[in-house]
Amino acid sequence: MTDEWRPERGELALVGDSLTQGGDWDALLPGEAVRNFGMAGDTTDDVLARLGDVIDARPALIALLVGTNDLAWRRSVEHVVRNIETMLVTLRKELPETRILAQSVMPRGHEFADQIRDINRHLWQFAPTVHAGWLDLWPAMALEDGELNPAYTEDRLHLNAEGYRVWAGELIPALERIRELPPSSRAITLPDLGGAA
Known about the structure:
Layout: E1 11-16, H1 18-21, H2 25-28, E2 33-38, H3 44-49, H4 51-57, E3 61-65, H5 68-72, H6 77-94, E4 99-103, H7 113-126, E5 133-135, H8 138-141, H9 161-180
Parallel strand pairs: 1-2, 1-3, 3-4, 4-5
């Protein structure tokens, strides 16, 4: 409901591919002022190329989820990880006061599970280095073998209404947690070690 929106929360930018684009986020995230930067078919290269649009919008909070389309193009785990890490570093540098939430690459067909787990392991370790939060969607979305739960999809990739409902159920508390963190814009000062060059 619109009367629940609190302006001091600022705008939430959702950044990603068709998974992000396809969500009815105004309904799924009541109380949020959502700007949807999802674009169908986007790979990490594509999102990286249009990151300037997100930066120009200067949102208060960014939730990023991208990477599954790279696998269809047979991009390596290293390629996906490097691109997402570059996105996170760029966002942090250009928007020092914006809160950032990195989300794990969604499960899809189980044949992609090992690659996606590998990508997510790297991103989980990297996110804190740029003061970004981390949301692991796998426990809620994947079966034991890494397959996207069939209850949430018709094509083993895109989400149905139930899939979006479950995703939003994970995203809402994650957004609240990240809003409660101290600001990440303070300069990091190193201790003076007495003239060591």
